Amino acid sequence: MRPVDPARFRAVMGNFVTGVTVVTAAGDSGPVGMTANAVASLSLDPLLLLVAFDNSARTLAVVRDRGRFGVNVLAAGQAELARRFASKAPEDAKFAGVPHTVHDGIPVIDDTLAWVGCRLVQLVPGGDHTIGIGAVESAEAGERSGDDASGRGGGRPLIWFRGRYTA
Fold first, then answer.
1. Nearest-angstrom CA–CA distance, 11 and 37
2. What is the DSSP track for 74-136?
3. Count of CB atoms within 10 A of residue 4's CB?
4. Among 57, 92, 112, 119, fewest CB within 10 Å belongs to which?
5. What is the pLDDT of residues 39-69, one digit of tens each?
6. DSSP H or E stretch at residue 13
């Protein structure tokens, strides 16, 4: 049997719809963050969440060092925010003009659908990624979690499908 070409695998998996998040942490020089769609609820007892970090992600190093991270669930209409945090721009440029607060040492982006704050429990190697498992310490639905008539997406999530952001 021939091995599956990585480009083919990526195209096939592009048919699997995922939500879009920004994973944040507090570094020595300020907040850091990255866009992630490989995020999932892992367990209800105990409450655990997992995030797949690219091994080269600057955010991974901060999460490893600080032992805490947040997951901000983006709403429809926040694709620009997803692109910003997916870029290789300096961290201070990523957060420039992005309203956020700090909750228990975790940067929380304002006006998202929801956010979850985690204490890092374990890092597991996974090829070119590292799987971070976090114990959920806080979880809140934002103001956008209900439908609205603003045209900004209301309670609809930003999703990733076939290589692009959509709602």
1. 15
2. PBTT-HHHHHHHHS---HHHHHTT--EEEETTEEEETT-SEEEEEEEEEEEEETTEEEEEEEE
3. 9
4. 92
5. 999 999 999 999 999 999 999 999 999 999 9
6. helix 6-13
Quote the CA–CA distance of 156 and 113 in Å, as a whole number.
Answer: 8
Helix (H) or strand (E) holding 61: helix 58-66
Q: Which residue type occupies 132?
A: G
Which residues fall within 8 angstroms of residue 130, CB to CB, at 6 or more apart? 52, 53, 55, 60, 123, 124
**Whole-model pTM over 0.85:** yes
Q: What is the pLDDT of residues 155-165, one digit of tens each?
A: 899 999 998 99
Share of residues in the chain with pLDDT > 90 (%) = 89
**CA–CA–CA angle 93, 136, 133 (5° rounding):** 75
